[in-house]
Design goal:
It is a single chain. The protein is built from nine helices and 13 strands. It is of the alpha/beta class. It folds into two domains: 69 residues; 240 residues, Major capsid protein gp5 (Major capsid protein gp5 fold), CATH 3.30.2400. The strands form four sheets. Strands 5-13-10-6-9 form a five-stranded mixed sheet. A hairpin with a 2-residue loop joins strand 7 and strand 8. It is elongated and about 115 Å long. The N and C termini lie far apart (81 Å).
């Protein structure tokens, strides 16, 4: 079998598989308005494999052709225009204008170079997610989490002489409710895109999920608690105010806050800072006689780590510059997950008649801060 026939057979076999998967995709979408995750994954995988195989086989065929015959030099755009029927009609006076669209013209010096489809998708920037990773997650099945939390505790425990009355301690509780909030967004795509470029559709799904995650990361820190917002870590009532000391560096404040929490029986595990503030601290140097000396937080070529005084640092652009938050986040907070990120497709309003599909992504969750005394938040210097 010749090389050409082998190439054609391979592409045909892969094309049959991809067509069958797309037919299954479109069938489910038409019947129930959504597509199973397995089917989406199958279409995405086959589409990417087809593109990669096509690119590899095209390159292989080109190299083989170079070995058997000289490659004819392609015409320039001007040469193609002069030889075109439109130009000939213009010369004969049978037309008042001539227009030619030149496609797939090779412009590189190497006349054997042809453009190939790059497999996959060139992604945009995906900002790092940091805050959610340090919170304890608890799955729930309701729209509201109701609980009691300690409001006040008076410890009157003391030594007692024989026969004397024992001291009474006192504890007070309060009702504490955490509403479950929906975070969502959507985008419209064409039916043609859905059928012709499943890899693009899969990328859009990834972007929608990332958009949810970015918004949730911001809400976990700065949500103001006003419905439908989450009540974030810096929302009033979810923390204890930190009293800054004049001229303190960020690392000074972390140390002071750590031991202020220890004094209340809370061992902090996490501190959240703005990346710019952390960078300022890393660049701080000692000075002698007006000359810059060593870096205080470690030499640039040595990994100093991001756990000052044993507390893990989480950097977030959502933290206001000049402020920081430190606390026992794993022991004093709970992320209540009603449902994970879900992506669905369907027809909305005039979508069907306009050949459009609406793609929606949403997640339902709530944040509970169970011990505000275990979290300090505020400016790190006065």
């Amino acid at each position: 079998m010749e090389l050409k026939e082998i190439i054609e057979a391979g592409l045909t076999a892969q094309s049959v598989k991809l067509d069958a998967a797309i037919a299954k995709f479109e069938g489910q979408l038409a019947q129930k308005g959504t597509v199973d995750t397995e089917v989406k994954a199958e279409v995405k995988t086959l589409s990417e494999e087809f593109k990669l195989l096509s690119a590899q086989m095209t390159a292989l065929a080109q190299k083989s052709a170079e070995g058997f015959k000289a490659v004819e030099k392609p015409l320039s755009a001007a040469e193609e225009f002069v030889k075109s029927p439109q130009y000939q009609l213009l010369l004969k006076g049978e037309s008042s204008k001539a227009r030619l669209e030149v496609k797939n013209t090779v412009t590189a010096d190497n006349t054997n170079t042809f453009a190939l489809q790059r497999p996959g998708m060139i992604p945009g920037n995906f900002a790092p997610l940091t805050i959610r990773q340090v919170l304890s997650s608890i799955p729930v099945s309701t729209n509201m989490v109701n609980s009691l939390r300690e409001l006040a505790w008076t410890n009157s425990a003391a030594e007692v002489s024989q026969g004397a009355a024992k001291p009474q301690s006192d504890i007070t509780f309060e009702q504490y409710n955490v509403p479950i909030t929906t975070v969502a967004h959507w985008i419209k795509i064409s039916n043609q895109l859905l059928a012709d470029a499943p890899a693009v559709v899969a990328y859009i799904e990834t972007r929608l999920r990332d958009g949810l995650a970015q918004r949730i990361d911001a809400q976990l820190l700065n949500g103001n608690g006003t419905s439908p917002n989450l009540s974030g870590l810096t929302d009033s009532g979810n923390f204890t105010a930190y009293t800054a000391t004049s001229d303190d560096l960020l690392v000074d404040a972390i140390n002071r806050a750590k031991y202020a929490l220890w004094a209340t029986g809370n061992a902090p595990d996490t501190v959240i800072v703005n990346p710019a503030d952390w960078g300022t601290m890393e660049r701080t140097r000692e000075y002698s006689g007006g000359l810059a000396g060593s870096y205080l937080y470690g030499m640039p070529g040595v990994a100093a780590g991001v756990n000052p005084f044993g507390v893990q640092v989480v950097m977030s652009n959502n933290m206001t510059p000049g402020k920081f938050l430190i606390g026992n986040l794993r022991g004093s907070t709970a992320l209540y997950a009603r449902s994970g990120a879900v992506v669905e497709m369907g027809y909305v309003n005039e979508d069907f008649t306009n050949n459009l599909i609406t793609v929606r992504a949403e997640e339902r969750l709530g944040l509970g801060v169970e011990r505000p005394s275990a979290i300090l938040y505020g400016d790190f210097t006065a």
